[in-house]
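FAQ: What does a multi-protein file look like?

Like this. Sequence, then tokens, then the next protein.
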Amino acid sequence: MKLELRGITKRFGTFAANDHIDLVVGDSQVHALLGENGAGKSTLMNVLYGLYEPTEGEILVDGRPVTFRGPADAMAAGIGMVHQHFMLVPVFTVAENVALGAESTKGAGFLDLDATRAKIREISARYGFDVDPDALVEDLPVGVQQRVEIIKALVRNAKVLILDEPTAVLTPQETDELLEIIAELKASGTSIIFISHKLREVKAVADVITVIRRGRVVGDAAPSAAAAELATMMVGRPVSLTLDKAPAQPQETTFSVRDLTVVAPTGQRVVDGVSFEVAKGEILAVAGVQGNGQTELTEAILGLHRQATGSVMLDGEELLGRSVKHVLEAGVGFVPEDRSHDGLVGSFSVAENLVLDLYDRAPFARGLAMSPGRVAAQAKDKIEEFDIRTQSADELASSLSGGNQQKLVMARELSRPLRLFIASQPTRGVDVGSIEFLHRRIIAERDHGTPVMIVSTELDEIMELSDRIAVLYRGRLMGIVQGDTPRDVLGLMMAGMSADEARASAAETYEQTHRASDDTPGETHA
């Protein structure tokens, strides 16, 4: 099936999320859509899937114009979509989720799940999915849940499958398995639109790469194109994809967490007896698939979880149980994962947001009143230093792009003397060029002698920044390893293995792979 988008434009008010985009997806082709967060990739696919109506332009299937008034129309035309956040009902079985929305009945109107189970088994066997139709979705690993979403689309005879940031919640091993599945789907005649901002994966899987920047197509590239070339197309200027950093020079240990436990309202231990320490002058990175306790861990350290038990010590002072204000005043800089909800006040100006944790202290306050001149001077310096793209320091923080909001939060937290710096998803939604700058600032804070703790779901970022890596799985610490630990070992730890088990398993896999390579028929061995 050939799919074509001509001049697709989608406006929200005066903002053009998509601006006259042309795209052609050929038969049995993996077409990657590459661009930074906020470039317009997901909006374009929501138009294609019938979730948004285009402001201008047309969609053609096999040369015929079509109009989609909803996902049902798109599915009827042979287009399926696996969203970044899965559309599954956790308490339903796999078969019930697959049947949902396309129910078949038998007898007196009873749901015919037997037919659905048969289809699931047939598709699962064809592609090696290994999915049990009667398993509850909530009991399945994230990678298997994603396969259920793919099965849903294939049951509905999808000829073009849209995968929106499909590796965002996967371990490295699950990512490799997904790329193999994509190759099998392509071989069977299914076309794939692979949406991502990850250069490594796009280069590995794509036949054609289309780069989108600020809602417009800036060009096509072959997967053989250099990563630096693709990054330049994404950002619009040359950027460096490597971070030069000197080895860490750890000093005394000033921050420690002991047996930290956080219990959710459901009674589940979302952080389960976690212990670690961070020395001055080193970066401890916390890795794990999103939703394995990282958020609750950082929030407990900050003082946001009253039901947390254990110990959080900074320079000999117990912080657990103290207020957020006290923790910040103790010298903790904190960048939350959700900047818009927890990191800034959208109705305050850029200048006001830059002094949120200092507004009541000199030199930004005199008595009970703020000092506007000092606040304005601080804003001018930090806007320039961190390249915050804003019309003025008086502009509302809510009007900034997501990447500039992130730079605003980072600028505020790195603008005062710190005894501990914690950043959760420090470069989420930031363009490649700004990532380079923010990574350098984090390294500079480490080299200044501050203990630094980074939480990220981007494994490349973890490996780039870390001196040591702590891996969380379902709230438990699987181990702490050195920053140069191989990706496959980290992936196994992210799936629930201890550090020792992961190393042994990775070594065994390596040995088996090379033994199979050595035993290739036709070769002669000594």
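And here is the next protein:
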Amino acid sequence: MQKGYRQWLALAAMSLGTFMGLLDVTVVNVALPTMATHFNSTFTDLQWVLNIYTLVLAVSLLILSKMGDMYGRKKIFVASIILFVVASAVNGFAPNLLVLDIGRGVQAIGGAGMNSLAMALVASNFSGSKRGLALGILGSVIGISTASGPLIGGYLVEAFGWSSIFFVNVPVGVLTVILTLVYVNETPSYGANERIDFAGMGLSAATLFSLIYGLIQKEGHNTWAWTDMRVAGWLIAAVVLFIAFIFAEQHVKKPMIDLSMFKSVHLIGTLVVATGLGIALYSFNAFMTVMMQNYMGYSAFDTGVRQLTISVWSLILGPITGMLGARFSKKRLIGFSLFVGGIGFLLFMNAVSTRLSFGDMWPAMILMGITNGLVNPLLNTAGMEGVAPQEMGMASGLINVFRQIGTTIGVVGLGLIQDSRYETYLGAHLSKITGMPGALATTLKKVLVDAGPFAGHGVAFSKRMGHMPFAHDFQTVVLAAYRNSMQGIMLAAAIVLFVAGIAALVLMRDHQESTDVE
């Protein structure tokens, strides 16, 4: 077989691995109601099926990136796929939530290796203009995998049951292992005979664990103040551990991360953009999915189909980003594409109403999709430029870590904005409903705030409320409060993308004008 064909089959293997690893971040969302019935459990307990994957994925990314750089990225990539497939099978057969939670944690370790090393393997298996094209295609896969979770998950759950979202990984994973073993070229084992920086690995893992877990605690308990030690304690620990990590890395002969990498203004700009994407675009998927299902009445599958308006642009634009990046300034393409997404969020904010339809949404969703379809592939390509071969795995890992941290920060931060605006609107308008006693207005406000914006529609349109003489006015206020809260989220997301766009234009460097260290 000609070398060209072997290269593209190698890319297929790395794309499949990335797709599986990232898809499992979101695909479980739509299966939670079915899981709740199957395990006879509460949604609060089931939240850890999601959270444990996010937590372990973030903690493992940098460690597996470093292991790949040291011992060969192909070896660690294949081992990660095998671990992911085995854990997926265990999850599908899980007899209880404890087994499922443990399986999800193990699965996340495999997913971290697949996600962090695929980009570096592409960079080392391709060169010249083909590298830009290949990284562009991989960026498309990253973009579409996150957005297609509701569509794929909705179809699998409705057609085959909740366990199918795990079992489907088995044949796909076996195919990925075969393609990788046959067609992917191994990278040199940089530093295989050197001592492992256990202190750096342990401290980096503990730092990310404390940060992500603290944010998860805040997300799950929005009534807890930031100063509550159940939240603040973890965030303070993250800061202390991060300082200890920096100190340790400065005094190790061969550190886990060469801190001189962060002298590159270009790398800092790349990581700011990755974080901004996570905060604005990827975390917003969760809020939009709930809005379409709980407030607009779409099924999980119908929601996924409509969200193709965003994700399809990754397929359309990803393959051509290599050509665009070779012809035009990457930092300008990234910066102005982020501005397009910001405009999309502003259009969305203006379109939101108590009678929102898909016809009102799609123009904004197209702009958001264009941003996702252009920025992700270009960011991957730009992030690998000027990086030493032995550090490509770590650079890839850092981009993935900051994207993941951004997503977690976005879910928490945007959620707090939503909760605040929702509660404020209810407080200002419930008491004005004609015929509603003041004491009942206070009680209903507490019920709605405790249930949260996601569940407000269910409370307002319950059979019990439907018999109240003021039901229509009450429902109108709840819908308006939710609209107001979503507008706050969209405004915040727009600002984040505008700031990320400015950071790209100011901090990032085009390859011909940059040096590794500035």
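Q: Is there any per-entry metadata?
A: Some entries carry free-text notes. For the entry above: Residues 421-486 form one domain.
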